[in-house]
Amino acid sequence: MGASNYLLSLLLLLPLLGAVVIALSPRANVGLQKTLGMAFSLATFALSLLLVTGFQPVAEMQFVERYDWIPAYGISFHLGVDGLSLWLVILTTFLTPVALLGSWSSIEQRVKEFNVFMLLLEVGMLGVFFALDLFVFYIFWEAMLIPMYFLIGIWGHGRRIYAAVKFFLYTMAGSVLMLVAFLVLYKETGAVGFGLAELLRRPVDPALQFWLFLAFALAFAIKVPMFPFHTWLPDAHVEAPTAGSVILAGVLLKMGGYGFLRLAMPLFPQAALEMAPWIALLAVIGIIYGALVSLVQPDMKKLVAYSSVSHLGFVMLGVAAFSTTSVTGAVYQMLNHGISTGALFLMVGMLYDRRHTREISEFGGLKTVMPWFSALFLMVGLSSIAVPGFNGFVGEFLILVGSWRAFPGMVIAASLGVILAAAYILWMIQRVLYGEVTNPKNEKLADLSPRELAVLLPLVFLAVYMGIFSPQFTRTIEPSVAALVRDVRAAGAPAHNAAALPAAADAR
Amino acid sequence: MFAVDLRPLLPALIVAVTALVVLLAQAFTPKGSRSPSMGLTATGLAGALLLSLTMAADARYGRGASTGGTYVADDFALFFHVLLIGLALMATLLSPAYYRENGGERGEYYTLMLFSLVGMLGLVSTTEMISMFVALEIMSVALYALAGTRRDQIESQESALKYFVTGAFASAFLLFGMALLYGLSGSTQLARVARGVAEAGPEQLPLAVLGCGMLIVGFGFKVASVPFHMWTPDVYEGAPTTVTALMAAGVKAAAFGGFLRVFLGSLSGRLPDGTYFSAEWIPALAALAAITMVIGNLGALAQSNLKRMLAFSSVAHAGYLMSGMVGQSEAAGQAVLFYLVAYGAVNMGTFGLLASLSKGGREPLSLQDVAGLGERRPALAAALTVFLISLTGVPISAGFVGKFYLFGAAVNAGYTSLAIVGVLMSVVSAFYYLRVVVAMYMREGEGEDAWAVPEASARLSLLVAVVVTLGLGVWPAPVLDLARAAALAL
């Protein structure tokens, strides 16, 4: 096996090393810092592709590593990847260089710190997806807040400080109760340490499950964000610099859904299945509400930000319905959202770099001035509204089909969200790209530079590729999801056979 | 009778002798020539630290020994020896620049600091109540004087007076509590007190509870728990910053050391009816911990002066520590000890950083004063950020691991609600700690950079604080193990 035994650690160490190297580099040499940031993030991406090539489409955890960390308390640095996390890991390593390249020329101040924080953020995100120990999970989960806080607060726009502090406090408030829930779980199950596999073997009393699930769900619902915990998101997204928005929308928002699937549902199956209708309800409210609010936004970035609330509502609907199809769709939709919304944020940022405004009414007729931009913007928009042939279609379709049996009424309501999404995206595209050039300031706008094309083309390519060749991805996602659904459904059934549970957990 | 084992006293003796040497050296130093006080103090402390480490490493050098049954060198005492001497050493390295900028270096400053350290060492090592009281007074009296060493400043004088009056008040409570327990058990030896309490019948139990309550009040003053915290903001603000650092880091640790030894070590025994005596005071301690966390954090929220803010934060941290103590078990003791290390390093670092920036009688005390520090002093701002992150309890820092174990101990004892209060208050604390980070990184500094460049010794001290804070966050296992061994010695 050789190096693949240490692949996950290497993936954590490489960006960390990059951050240290950049921190020690001479302050004046801005070009060097940018290049180093790029080089380390690209190297991390290249390394992460080894995960894809070495991955077997089975349910088991792969590339598992385990080191004693605080041995006296059974806490170990336990890492692994399965179908749930594999592509989210790739998404993270892919979006980091994209975001860095996207803000190559728009970040001019404190370039050194910017690159350091971006790489540290990458370490944090990867750590969350790798973690198989609750303590490790929490460490990365919270540590990730700090670089993001700085990214918003230092390089953000107008009300950046407000947005940064709000982001930090909101997320921390959600997660600290989860920490208490960890401690209670540890005490009540009598587990040795915080290893996920170990905890899964020890069923929790149903009455207690409810409270613990609630604590976990709060942390994850804030991160997703689910209605009504979404109020931090528009502020954070709009005030963050482009790279921050891309990572925030592309990866950080996925951690909520991932947390539900990886921790909250398998640890508390009964409570999870009991609460599922409520989660679905909130998800559908989020879908409709996010779409309606997007519809009336005069600011493009705000529009994209609220559209995330709507899109993540689909993901959560799929999670709540909890069938193999719907959860596979939810995982797939997380990837899609990362790509299409990441691209939308990048493109809005490119317009902002040119005009220093994001008001839709300031634009119009860009199709004639910026043909390349317009073509790509249209494609990204179509991907975002899930037109067949694009990635979004596959995800939303799987979610809606997979959720039909559990929540037919909600699926109908959610379909309304699909229509609304088409409305707000197409209406924005129409107002920005088509018609006459009404504003003289837009007449001389430069089309995409080679760098900007290099940023966008991979994203657009993936949006199409993932729309057509989706089985290549779902093939690896599905086994893990199927095992998860089977175990949770078995353990969560009202009159489940207690003896069946350890066996099911072992089988994972 | 003559074979008295003096080894447990040796570290404290070295510190005391150093204090005297510094005093004499100062007297014989010709006017105008460079004072040797700092060098002598640092050397003496380094020697004491080395000796403590040696003792801790091997039983042949006095680990586990006892001087006449009243002064011991058990794992618990040695753990605190290393911590307290280390903190004093850090404070010493921070001091010369601060005193040069703020009105003259004085030999008696170091002497007083060393004497106060002798008191701290005694407080954590003694197993007898009168010695404990004497040690506490040695520590406190030296600190009263230290708080007033900036004679030109009215705040410093106020601080000294306030500390003295409230401190004397606290001592009285403590002494009264000790007297009651003596009346109950007929001895001042903690071991005998423990037996006396355990054998107390129903008619003597109120006496024990009352004595216990008095002791809680006395220790509550010293660790700055609500409602005995009123002195803290004024004293922390008025005292010279290096002294504040020693108070926040060292005195709190020593006071908790005494607190733990008396309460977890002696007043937790099983009563004749099968219940534990700790059941009498744990609920009170839990209630105090809860209000201390709430009031401390809400108080800090309202402060604009950094030293006052940190004073309230120190109150809040007394609350976190007490909620760990509620757990009673050795895991609880371990959590408290680990957190004292984490908290000591962080506070020494935070106050030390403010002190080492001071120039021409001014030091950075407001958010405007630290605005733009992120660009002007990247290394110092990064260090302060690490400290503040640790105080908030966010990973990867010692503060996170510490709080994890403190609240874990509370949850294990069935006080989940206390842990919930604690973590929610940590979120509140994030707000006021972040304000400082916001000022440093997200606001522009106004005017010229008016602050001093910390000198090498101060930088060394700050570096140690950063390394400990991050190191314990990444690799806490060794110190956790030591803390466990120390807690088991109780």
Can you put this structure into words, describing what you see?
The complex is a heterodimer of chains A (508) and B (490). Chain A is mainly alpha-helical. Chain A contains 22 helices and two strands. In chain A, strands 1-2 form a two-stranded antiparallel ribbon. In chain A, α7 (160-189) runs antiparallel to α9 (206-223) and α15 packs antiparallel against α18 (391-404). Chain A is globular. Chain B is built from 20 helices and two strands. The two termini of chain B are 26 Å apart. Chain B has helices at residues 10-28, 37-57, 75-101, 107-125, 129-147, 154-185, 190-198, 205-223, 231-238, 241-263, 278-301, 306-325, 330-357, 367-370, 373-376, 378-392, 398-412, 416-442, 456-474, 477-488; strands at 66-67, 71-72. Chain B has 490 residues and is mainly alpha-helical. In chain B, β1 and β2 (71-72) form a beta hairpin. The mean pLDDT of chain B is 90. The longest helix of chain B has 32 residues, at 154-185. Helices cover 74% and strands 1% of the residues of chain B. In chain B, strands 1-2 form a two-stranded antiparallel ribbon. In chain B, α1 (10-28) packs antiparallel against α4, α4 runs parallel beside α10 and α10 (241-263) runs parallel beside α12 (306-325). Classes of the chains: A mainly alpha (508), B mainly alpha (490). The interface between A and B is medium-sized, with 35 and 31 residues.
